[in-house]
Amino acid sequence: MSLFASPSYPPVGYAASAPRQHAFNPYTDNGGSIIGIAGDDFLIMAGDTRHTSGYNINSRTEKKVFRLSEDSTLVLATVGFGADAKDIAETMRLAVNDFKFQHNLKNMTVQAAAQYLFTVLYGNRFFPKYAYCILGGLDKDGKARLYSYDPVGSYSKEGERRAAAGAASSLIVPFLDNQVEFKNQYVPGTNFTVEREVEYLPVDKVKKLVKDAFTSATERHIEVGDGLQLVTISKDGYQEELFELKKD
Predict the structure, then answer these.
(1) Could you confirm whether the keyword Nucleus appears in this record (predicted)?
(2) 3-state SS of 73-139?
């Protein structure tokens, strides 16, 4: 090659060969957060109504708490990939209603619904439904039961007193641990030697805690906000309330 020859460049639009990484990622995180708190004879389930994709807000009115039957106490809250979350909610709603018609109009118990949801999630473990779920309801004795799940179905059969998932869960869970389960709380006057005993909170106190948790979360997470859907399940039935949150 001559020292005075002009250099050769690749044609315009030609991409030089280089290692390429091919990936299949069918999921996206659509933001939001959910909370579940079990009282003695009532259950609070709540979620914000913001649906996001990155820095974009797709919807400000997307509910995350679903009633599974009109005449039962079963409620499901889901967060994560919006499409999978809705699919899980619809699958559970159909299962609960099918059970009723196959068992002489008897409603599915909350324990049976918890086991069925585990089956649905674990059955898809090789191609998981990307959604975190909180299932709750009243048992045959009128006591509140609460179960939380990861996307492959892991859950505690004994149930929980409080649960949270979603974008702001890292902020909400420590708050609930302290305010609901009284962790790191001590009896006044004991010089931090006697821990406070865990007790059930009244429904008004729980509602205030949930509102405070979401109000704080909206100050720190852009994926959470717009509206708060708060559902109360008790012996008196199903009650749903909507409150405004920050919209920026």
Answers:
(1) yes
(2) CCEEEEEECHHHHHHHHHHHHHHHHHHHHHCCCCCCCHHHHHHHHHHHHHHCCCCCCCEEEEEEEEC
CA distance 84 to 121: 11
220's enclosing H/E stretch is helix 203-220
Summarised one tens digit per residue, pLDDT across range 18-60 is 777 788 888 999 999 999 999 999 999 999 999 999 999 999 9
pLDDT digit string (tens) for 142-179? 999 999 999 999 998 778 899 999 999 999 999 999 99
- pLDDT recorded at residue 221: 92
The domains of the chain, with CATH numbers, are 33-244 (3.60.20.10)
Quote the pTM value: 0.88
How far apart (Å, rounded) are the C-alpha atoms in residues 72 and 107?
A: 7
**DSSP tag of 57:** E
Residue 180: pLDDT over 80: yes
Q: Is 87 exposed, middle or buried (0-12, 13-18, 19+ CB in 10 A)?
A: middle
For residues 36 and 75, give the distance between their C-alpha atoms in angstroms, rounded to a whole number.
10
Question: 233: how many CB neighbours lie within 10 A of its CB?
Answer: 25
Place 11 in a pLDDT band, splitting at 50, 70 and 90: low
Ramachandran region, residue 60 (left: φ > 0; alpha: ψ -120 to 50; beta: rest):
alpha
Environment class of 126 (CB within 10 Å of its CB; exposed 0-12, middle 13-18, buried 19+): exposed
